[in-house]
Amino acid sequence: MTSQSAHQEAPTTDERIAAAVRALAAGRGVRAVDLAPIIGIGKTRVFAKLKGEAMWKASEVEAVADYFDVSVGDLFDGLGLFRDTKKPHRVTGGASLAVRHQGLEPRTY
Question: How many helices (H) and strands (E) does the chain have?
Answer without folding.
Answer: 5, 0
